[in-house]
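Box 3.1. Reading complex inputs
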Amino acid sequence: MPTDTSKVHIGLILPDVLGTYGDSGNATVLCKRLEWRGIPAMVVPVRISEPTPASLDLYVLGGGEDDAQALAADYLREDAGIQRAAERGAVVVGVCAGLQVLGTSFTTSDGVVHRGLGLLDVTTKPGERRSVGEVVVQPDPRFGRQPLTGFENHMGASSVGPDSVPLGQVQRGTGNGDRSEGAVRGRVLATYLHGPVLARNPELADLVLGWVVGHPLPPLEVPEIELLRQERLARRRAR
Amino acid sequence: MLVASDLPWRTRFAITAARTAATLSRRTGRGGGSMIGGRIAAKLDPHALQHLARGRTVVLVTGTNGKTTTTLMLSRALEALAPVTTNGDGANMPDGVLAALAANTEAPFAVLEVDETYLPWVAERVDPAAIVLLNLSRDQLDRVGEIRKTEREFRSCVEKLADTVVVANCDDVLVASAAAASKHPVWVSTGQTWRDDSVACPRCGRAVRHHPQDEMEWDCVCGLVRPKPDWVLDGDRLTGPDGVAHRLQLALPGRANAANAALSLATATCVGVPLPQALGQVRSITAVAGRYQRVPYDGHAVRVLLAKNPAGWYETLPLLNPGDPVVIAINAREADGRDPSWLWDVPFERLRGRRVIASGERATDLAVRLRYAEVDASAQPDPLRAVTSLDAGPVELIANYTAFREVNARLGDAD
Ligand SMILES: [Zn+2]
């Protein structure tokens, strides 16, 4: 268990189970954006069958296929490390399957209902068809100004209940399925967007990092990222 | 080439029409011709595949990585006995498979690379003597979707084939689970250590256990267990069921090619080629569909390598010559998968300190990935312009599927 309190510890949760869509990239992005500002940080991978330390500052959960997602949910529910951490105010970021696992329940394509971790007021059922493609989301002003760009690939239709709010509204793509996208409650934030989402959306990365360090972070100039955002968002206008 | 006279008239007509279309397509510069030819044949005679395969020894090769190489190795090995027809161009959809069978109706052997999605469809029609199952990992996430579904489809496919030998990589959990349903499995330990895609057991969804002392051994509480290998590859040494070890000594580099060779040799032996003879044939391969050989271009010696997913990169990174500059070309077209998120699962950090150019249609996605890997890279979307911008000398050019095809075609034109 990490004891070095001078560093920000970023938990990469079950990279071996929930890591299908380049999800470790989100942890890499968070870590580097801290380091580049002179804030020491490290990624702590927590693999299946290892206990999840409740002492980390930030937890990142990624995507996975049905079986893997059910396995992860069962494991994390029992382990309860993330839930304890969230209770004391740690930041949790979930992507795709991670969003569904953080919710109260999700139904896999075989019709089985699984309990989630209950950190978000979200229930997910299989949608009518698989949603695959580029997504553009206008975030709720509390969570950012710049449009979010990402790639979605999921079957789930998620509904956000009164104890959470959507991360934003879909301008292109499917998201939760009702024009809303993602969910936030306190410092728990989740989205369907891959890309990875934090690589494509530095403002969102810095929002959650601001929650961790306790103050807003000054912007970082990274020309490649600006160019990537222009390319991805220009495609939207071209359509 | 003649059209065998014992084929039904409908199939003969379909083949003739397909060949005409293929020739036209090649002449008009629209492509290799095999796809359009196959499409026409299938339309004119829906049973063409059955008819064309009848009476021949057909071997199918499938899996995520290594299909084209293994298909080439196996056809070379079988050529030691008799003529072979094959889709060496990598056209591995039903059209391409049909075109390969139609291209030479006299060859007693057919070695056919088949796209994972179409294995059951093709196998049902050609009644294969053998199927080679290489590996299953994430590839084209948005297209193929769930590899676990592919595993289930493979499983029910091989279960139905009572007389087919299934030569399978027992170090790949998903492949082993599928091939265990076969009545005639031949197990090859390829020494594969890529496990990121098989953490949850394909049979029961629980976590697969890896033996703490022996990293090759694995099992699951549901009873799925790593099969005992008949063939074992250990570094460059391949030991067959008779216990005799042979050095592979391939001209092709890397562990992945040694694994492909082990599976090819095991299969060739099943079909009746004596191992030393098969090995001699496989050793003579120096390039696979434009890969591995050095091509002169504008004062550079360009080595083109294909890596289209994290498992492929895992095998490709160790092949790179230390010190040589690297051009990486990434596209995200339909055939590549539209989502290039997988780039974040490749340990590009290992390229730190090298000269690297991010290229291809998704050069910017790659440039961002490399920035976060703290690799000092520039970007140039055109891979050959990227090569030109480097000092004269050797260049490693690694590309994913459609980028690779484009680079190869342009290098071929430049020759
Ligand atoms: Zn199992």
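In summary: Residues B 201, 203-204, 206, 220, 222, 224 surround zinc ion (CB under 6 Å).
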